[in-house]
Each structure stands twice: as structure tokens, then as C-alpha cells.
Specification:
With 460 residues, this protein is an alpha/beta fold. It has 14 helices and eleven strands. The model has no long low-confidence stretch (mean pLDDT 96).
Length: 460
């Protein structure tokens, strides 16, 4: 059995190294159609066993044409990062070690790695000492965790135990959101029993920043509230004025939650942290490690300035579980919605060890510099219209009308030189370019701009 593992893992390591080594040469997008992939990967369930090495090699042969080169330096879609070498290696070990990180008893080293990595992140972001945290699949689950804590806190102050009594008959509470919030906020609230019709929506400006004056009016009177602010709007990268929002929510007794999926990472940069000034005054924060920290998918983090409601909202006990004990070890099931769970702390720990404080800052600042270089280069492409200034790592632009914009984008993606996505801005089709990968360099910027030059020229 040991020999089987040695052979298949050695072969897999070679395949993985070849894949990563091919990124500069291979098309960034997939080269197979949906029907082709179904044909390659489909078929009846095998009747008998197969050699593990054969299974892996046949999987690679069938799947590779359908892979998107997300780790490439020329992948600019959906604010997706790559994978730092130490983080990728630690993620492999996470699979091999196969620790169930829900309980300290099932993986003591996994528990302590999360404990250390969580404290490092808290320190890196300058969040309040004593804040609780949870390693979760992504920002969606981080919102769910934070807003569950907020729901508990607000209703508990009103004399209602939502974990025991549910929401039926509960005292009224308001959920206040921005008109330009991310869709994951609505989904988390829906899962927590708050339908979209119950939300109070505050207007936002054309860059997606919440109207603080309107928020002040909303909070002037009424039942207790939870306010969801944003650090990094998904199209423009713009930041809500978190300090001004905290000035409003604090006196109103509202819980302030910050959606910082990628934008909150500016707190690690001396050059850029002013954009999120006031973030430390919030009550909870949600962000991703699989974006700017370049940890492999999936990896999100929830922080809460108030450990008691956090734990009360998501913890669980059972007679058969081994929880707590000497030295008060950290059991992740006290802080996450998950029960059995992957040891996500290992890759985060490894990424932070590889980069250090200065490395994280340099990574964030370098990506933002590349975004500015993209904007300058695109401004020189005939027919290209930049839609606002570059705030951090998001570049928003279009070409003429909607149809032209789509054609220019399609040609670039089909060329294989880069992959990025379309969006809607101001009711019109636009292109969103997100620089979030540690691999992206000057040559990747040059090649992508050349692809847009060529695609735009085809319109004339």
C-alpha cells in the first residue's frame, strides 16, 4: 500500500510541475467544448478497480483541455488569485495529512496552525485584540458566520434568544445594506431568515460607495440594526467611507459588518491602508485568502470583535465529541458553521510564512501598480473608454456600444492570451480586469494589452 502511494504521488507531482511550468505558453482559457468534456470524462461507472496511476493519468488526459489556467499571470477574471508555492505545497500536505479540523482532538496541529494564522491575520489587518475568527470555505460563508453573530447580538439585547426561539415572533430588527452590495450578502441574509424584501437599501454613488448621509437618516429612528458596508466594490474597487459609517453606526448602537472579500487586504499595505480607514471600528469582517493572499481554493476568513455572540451563534456540542480540555485548545466547531472540515489553516499559515508582513504588502501594492499600468495602456487603445479611475486592482472599461464591447472581449479570450470577464456598469456592458495573482508581471501586462490592441483593431 505504501508503494502505491509513493508511485501515484510521485507521478502526480511531476504532472503538477509540468502544468505549472506550462502556464506562460498554454492558452489561458479552456480548449474543449462542454460536449467534448462530457465525452472525455463520461461513460458508465466502471465495474472493477483500476490502477491508481492509470486513473490519474487518464483523468489528466481527459480534463486538461477543460482546465482554465487560473494560476496564470494572465488570468484577470472574478478577482481570483493564484497559489503561492508554499501555500500550494501546504495544501497538498493538508490533503495527505487528512486532518478533520473541526476538533482539536482530531488534529491538534491543525487547530494550533489556525490559531496562529488567525492571530497573524488579526495583527496584519490591525483588528481589535481578542477578536474571534473562523476559517471557512469563502467570503459567502464568512458573511453567514458574521451575520449570524450579529443576529444573535441584536436580538439578545432585545431580550430574545434566536438560537432557542427562532425568528417567528422575534422583536423587529433592520438589516441595512448598500444598493451596490455584493450578492453574497443577500444570500447569507436569506439563509439566516431575512428575505430581500425585509432589507433597507441605502443609495450608493456611481462608484458604488454608500451614501453616508442617507444611512444617517435610516438609523435616526427605528429598531436595532445591522449595517453591511463594503471595502472594495466588485466592479470599481471603490471603498465605502468606513470611518464615517462607523461614526453613524456607533451612536446608533448598530452592528457594523464589513464585506472586505478582496479590498480589506489593503490594510496590510502602508501605501494603501488609508482606503479602509475606520475598518477596525467595525464589529465583524469577512474576506478571502484565496484572493490576494494567493492561497488555493477554497479559503475564506470571518472575524468578529465580539467572541461571545460569535460562539453562541454557531457552536455545537454533542455527548460523543471530545471538546476543550487541558490548556483550553481551540475547537473550530465553536466558531464555524462547518462540523467536519478541511484544515484550511495550514495553507494560510504557509502563505503568511512565505511572504511575511512586507511580502503581503508588496504583493498587494504590485498588483495595484499593474492595474494602473493596464489603465494607462488601455487608454491608448483606439475606441477604449475607461470607466473611472483605478482605486486598487480593478480596471473597468468598454469599447463603443455593448455589442462592440462583447466582440472585443470575446476575441481576447478566444485568443488564449488572457482571460477576463464582462459585467454591467451604469446599465451598459463593460469589461472588468482584476489583477490579483502573485505571478502577474510586466510581460503579462504587455501581452494582454497587445491582445486588446489587436482585437480593437479588428473593429475598424
Amino acid at each position: 500500500m505504501g508503494d502505491e502511494f509513493g508511485e501515484v504521488l510521485t507521478r502526480t507531482a511531476r504532472i503538477a510541475a509540468d502544468w505549472l511550468g506550462s502556464l506562460d505558453q498554454r492558452p489561458v482559457g479552456e480548449t474543449a467544448t462542454l460536449a467534448e468534456l462530457r465525452g472525455r470524462l463520461g461513460g458508465p461507472l466502471p465495474d472493477g478497480p483500476a490502477d491508481p496511476v492509470t486513473v490519474v493519468e487518464e483523468l489528466v488526459q481527459a480534463a486538461e483541455p477543460g482546465l482554465v489556467a487560473i494560476p496564470s499571470g494572465r488570468y484577470f477574471g472574478f478577482v481570483i488569485g493564484g497559489g503561492l508555492p508554499a501555500a500550494v505545497a501546504a495544501d497538498w500536505l493538508t490533503t495527505v495529512w487528512d486532518q478533520n479540523a473541526g476538533l482539536y482532538a482530531c488534529g491538534p496541529a491543525a487547530s494550533v496552525a489556525e490559531e496562529v494564522a488567525g492571530e497573524w491575520l488579526r495583527e496584519l489587518f490591525g483588528l481589535p485584540g481578542g477578536s474571534s475568527f473562523a476559517f471557512v470555505p469563502g467570503c459567502q460563508t464568512a458573511h453567514l458566520t458574521c451575520l449570524a453573530a450579529a443576529r444573535h447580538h441584536v436580538l439578545r439585547r432585545a431580550g430574545w434568544n434566536v438560537e432557542e426561539q427562532g425568528l417567528a415572533g422575534a422583536p423587529p430588527m433592520r438589516i441595512v445594506v448598500s444598493a451596490r452590495r455584493h450578492a453574497t450578502i443577500d444570500r447569507a441574509l436569506r439563509l439566516l431568515g431575512f428575505g430581500t424584501a425585509t432589507l433597507t437599501v441605502v443609495p450608493a454613488d456611481d462608484r458604488g460607495r454608500m451614501d453616508v448621509a442617507a444611512l444617517r437618516e435610516v438609523l435616526r429612528d427605528g429598531p436595532p440594526a445591522v449595517v453591511c458596508a463594503q471595502a472594495g466594490e466588485v466592479n470599481t474597487g471603490a471603498f465605502d467611507d468606513l470611518a464615517a459609517i462607523a461614526d453613524v453606526t456607533g451612536p446608533a448602537g448598530a452592528w457594523l459588518h464589513v464585506d472586505g472579500a478582496f479590498g480589506l487586504w489593503v490594510l496590510a499595505s502602508p501605501e494603501l491602508r488609508h482606503l479602509a480607514a475606520g475598518a477596525e471600528r467595525a464589529d465583524s469582517w469577512a474576506f478571502d485568502a484565496h484572493k490576494w493572499l494567493n492561497v488555493p481554493y477554497d479559503s475564506g476568513v470571518a472575524f468578529c470583535a465580539h467572541p461571545e455572540p460569535h460562539r453562541a451563534a454557531v457552536s455545537v456540542t454533542a455527548d460523543y465529541l471530545v471538546q476543550g480540555g487541558a490548556g483550553e485548545p481551540r475547537d473550530a466547531i465553536d466558531w464555524t458553521p462547518g462540523f467536519s472540515r478541511r484544515a484550511r489553516g495550514f495553507p494560510v499559515y504557509a502563505a503568511l510564512r512565505q511572504l511575511g508582513r512586507q511580502g503581503v504588502a508588496e504583493l498587494v501594492e504590485r498588483c495595484c501598480a499593474h492595474a494602473r499600468a493596464f489603465a494607462a495602456g488601455l487608454a491608448a487603445v483606439p475606441g477604449c473608454e475607461l470607466l473611472g479611475e483605478v482605486v486598487i486592482n480593478q480596471v473597468l472599461f468598454r469599447f463603443g456600444d455593448d455589442a462592440t464591447t462583447e466582440r472585443v472581449l470575446r476575441r481576447v479570450v478566444d485568443s488564449g492570451e488572457a482571460w477576463l470577464s464582462g459585467t454591467v456598469a451604469g446599465g451598459r456592458r463593460a469589461i472588468r480586469l482584476s489583477v490579483c495573482n502573485w505571478r502577474t508581471g510586466d510581460e503579462d501586462v504587455r501581452r494582454t494589452l497587445a491582445a486588446f490592441q489587436k482585437s480593437a483593431a479588428a473593429e475598424s
